[in-house]
Amino acid sequence: MEHIAAIDWLSAAQQQGAGNLLRVVLIVMVVGCVLTAWFLLRGYRRKDD
C-alpha cells in the first residue's frame, strides 16, 4: 500500500505545478553560493601563528 501513497503524492505534486521545484532549486542555489563563498574566502584568513 505504500506505493499507492507515493503515486498519490506524485500526482498531487504534478498538479501543483513548478512551485515546489522552483523553491527547492532556489534553496539549493543559495546554499551552494554560501558554501562556494566560504570555500573561496577561507584561504584569505590571516594566519596568526
Walk me through the structure.
The chain has a domain at 18-49. The chain contains 2 helices and no strands. The protein is mainly alpha-helical and 49 residues long. Keywords: Membrane, Transmembrane, Transmembrane helix.
Describe, in short, the structure shown:
The chain is mainly α. It has two helices and no strands.
End-to-end separation in angstroms reads: 61 Å
Helix segment count? 2
Q: Give average pLDDT, whole number.
A: 78
Which residues form runs of ≥5 with pLDDT under 50?
none
Basic shape: elongated
- Helix and strand string, N-terminal first? HH
The main pleated sheet reads as: none
Helical amount among residues, as a percent range? over 70%
- Strand fraction equals under 5%
Total beta strands: 0
